[in-house]
Structure formats: structure tokens, C-alpha cells
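Field notebook, page 358. I keep forgetting to write these up properly, so this time I am using the form the group agreed on. The chain and the ligand, iron/sulfur cluster, are recorded exactly as supplied. Prediction of the bound pose follows.
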Amino acid sequence: MSESSAPEHLFDLPPEYLDQHLERWCQQHELPGYRAKQVRQHLIEGRIYDPEEMTSLPEALRQDLSTGLLRSPLITAEQLRSSDGTIKFRFILEDGLSIESVWIPTEDRGTLCISSQVGCAAGCTFCATGTMKLTRNLHSREIVSQWLAVHAATTAEGLCGVTQVVFMGMGEPLHNYPAVSRAIDWFSSAQGFHFSPRRITVSTVGVVPRIRELVKDHPQVRLAVSLHSAIPETRNSIVPINTRHDLDQLGEVLEEIRGESRRISIEYVLLPGINDSDEEAKALALFAARCGAHINLLPFHPFEGAPYTAAGAAEVGRFQSMVQKNYEGSVTARRSRGLDIDGACGQLVLKPRPDSPN
Ligand code: SF4
């Protein structure tokens, strides 16, 4: 379906006017006003997003919703399960393109790593998604529906569903800010799904002007900055966006928002021989001190054609101690999840498949 012929979808509209959207839709379909309330109850209180399951509605109304205002903008094509419990979902969108989302269980939590774009234009050299280039931005309806679909699939298995959302899947979320912001509104607003904004993390490689917008529009959402080096020459070579929004600008904006209630973390993928020297560790500690961020070290996750090797536990430990020696804040090393299904950080990429054009 081309975008121009696609009917309006509720999740692309602002949630604060939910009642008005539903009432208007009922009027257009010559339905009594109480039907709007029923749809709202199913959707928001019951978290039922498939109109076919809104059993108190007449069949004709369910049909109309399924093909229009509440149609599903994606279908689940595949679920791959890791031995550590992680599940990678592949979804096919209305135009035949595909995206992936990853659900990661830890004790009583279920973290959804959500995608915001098909591919990514940022081109970080250690990331498989970056090799795809950008095909298109996702719509708000496609972002919200990843969450609803994964929550429904995991709770149906008796698992805890989605308790945290991290925008760390395919794409740079701040390159698609309007749709990401609208999706956050749907997740967290009083008129939407009441999901705590403190359970949402937006990860960015440093799109500085959009960081300012994000913190203004969503003051409680957490921010993760994919830094990967605090030395300009190194960062230019592995995170190309640094040539447009450099470390000085990034440090400045993080200093500005320091001390607000939000938690800031710095993500750092260790690339042996590239960004793991003592000099890099000291520069990282100095940068983190400007904004009081938590530092999260990540192993590199290999993908086909990648020019790097993964750091071993000893190399990660050595770098972690060197950073910690120079920094009073917290420094942790994150363990890999979903490696055996190519679902770990930086591994999301879509290989050509018979049912998908990309
Ligand atoms: S790390 Fe994030 S921003 Fe960089 S290429 Fe991968 S998906 Fe894009």
C-alpha cells in the first residue's frame, strides 16, 4: 500500500485527542457515540489492539476498524529464540519492507529494543544496521505496534511482557523525531497507554538539536548516548555523525541537562586496537564527568564483513578498571544477549529473503 493511499491510522494522530478522533470516526460511519467509548475501553484499558478481539462490537464495525483506523501496520513474520530467553521478532510492514525488534528478559523485566527506521543513515562502522543505509523512517503506528505485538506475544506465553522500552533497534531515533515523539506520547501519556516514561530510553549517536527537543518534550524519558570514543579523530572514524555534531557540542548539551531528574548513560562499544587505549579510557572518564553519566561498556558483536574483532573478558575488565580509576561515577560492562540469533546490540540487519524486497 503506498503512503498516499493509506487510510488514517489512530496511532499516527496525537493521543490527547483520542476521544475526539474516535467520536469523529463514529460520526463518519454513522455510528452512535457510545461505540467510541467501547473502542477506547478495549484499546486503552484492555490493551486489545486487534479489532477482531473487541468482541462487544458488531462484526461490521470490527471489520471497518481492521481495514482502517486500527488496522495492523505490521505482521509478525518470524520469532527467533535465543538460548538465553531473548526473542528476536521480524515484522513485515504494509509496503513489504521488514524490521526487527528484540525482547530481552532479565529477572522480572522484559526490555523491548524497538526500531525507529528501516535501516539507518548514521553509518556507524561497528553496526550491521548501518551497513543497510536508510530505506525509510517508520511511522508512529509502526513503532507503537511493535510494542503492542511483542507485549501480546510474550504475555500470551505467560512471560512478563514489555516492562521497559529502549530505542536501540534499527535506526537513529532522533533522525525520525516526529514519529518517535508521537509514539512516546502514545506509550506514556495519560490519554494513551500510561506506560511510565522513566521506563523508556532513547539512544542517540548525538543529534544535538534533537536532544534539546527530546528533553523539552519528554522530560522524564532516559537518554543513552552512543559515544564510542571521546577523542575527536577516533570518533570521526567510527561514528561519522561526529563530523556534523562534534564532541564539544555534544558535551555542551549534556552539561546543560545535567542535574535534571533524567538518567543519562554513555554507551561505549569496545573495539580492540581502535578505542581501548589508556588515553581513550581517560578521555571517556573526562567526558562522562561533564554530565555525570553512567558508563556502559559493550562488547563488539561481530557481523558479516565487519572490520573488527570482539574484546575478550580480560580486555573489557582492563579498560573498565582504567576508566573507573579516573571516574567517580558508575562504570559497568553489559553482557551480550541474543548473540546466537544475531539479536545483540548492533547486529540487527535484514538479509534478503524471498518474502521481502529488501
Ligand atoms: S549504531 Fe545506531 S545510529 Fe549507528 S548505524 Fe547502528 S542503528 Fe544507526
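OBSERVATIONS:
- Confidence is low (pLDDT under 50) at residues 352-358.
- The pocket of iron/sulfur cluster is lined by residues 120, 122-124, 127, 129-130, 170-172, 205, 226, 346 (CB under 6 Å).
FOLLOW-UP: compare against the apo run.
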